[in-house]
Amino acid sequence: ADHGEGFGEHNAYYHGTTLYEEMVRVPLVIHHPALHPRVVDSRVSLIDLAPTILDLFGVATPGSYMGQTLAPVLAGGSLAATRPIYLDSQRGLTGMVFEDGHKLLVDDGLPELYDLDADPGEEENIYDGGDHARRHLGELRAFEKAHQMVPVRRQ
User: Fold this and answer.
1) What is the mean pLDDT of the chain?
2) Are 141 and 147 in contact (CB under 8 A)?
3) What's the pLDDT band for 91 if we cut at 50, 70, 90?
4) What is the 3-state secondary structure (H, E, C) of the chain?
5) Is the model more confident about 44 or about 150?
6) The dihedral of CA 147, 150, 151, 155: what is its sign?
7) pTM (two decimals)
8) Do 98 and 117 touch, CB atoms closer than 8 A?
9) In this model, does residue 152 exceed pLDDT 60?
10) Is 12 within 8 Å of 3 (Cβ atoms)?
11) Is pLDDT above 80 for 60?
């Protein structure tokens, strides 16, 4: 699946309306004859899927791809590098999940920050405008600028 569904959590129904965990944290199942079945709890992105498939079949990943192969994780190792996971939605929301377990969401410029370890249901917005929160917002904006990400609001 590439998205979850809203069943009333955060007053959201259907999909593509929010970037809360119930919409973006979905299972990924990969079968390959050389891999043993296992559950991996690493946070990854769909941009990692193409590099992973190419790697599993021995094909070099083009340098223009933003994702990284998950093959080492699937084989029992770890990711080559952890990095923030960028999120966006069809209605112009953006967000990022950071290595420290925080998740930043921005809707019409209004930031929300959650500590996913302490608050997996994303109930308490801890965005306070302090240094930590502003640093995460700066990282999100720098990523968007570096990768020419332009949020588009659909009607």
Assistant:
1) 85
2) no
3) confident
4) CCCCCEECHHHCEECCCCCCHHHHCCCCCCCCCCCCCCCCCCCCCHHHHHHHHHHHCCCCCCCCCCCCCCHHHHCCCCCCCCCCEEEECCCCCEEEECCCCEEEEEECCEEEEEECCCCCCCCCCCCCCCHHHHHHHHHHHHHHHHCCCCCCCCC
5) 44
6) negative
7) 0.79
8) no
9) no
10) no
11) yes
Considering the four listed CATH numbers 3.30.1120, 2.60.120, 1.10.10, 3.90.320, the one that applies to the domain covering 6-25+84-146 is: 3.30.1120
Structure tokens at 19: 């970037």
Q: How far apart are CA 43 and CA 25, in angstroms?
A: 8
Across the beta sheet with 85-88, what order do the strands follow? Answer: 85-88, 94-97, 102-107, 110-115
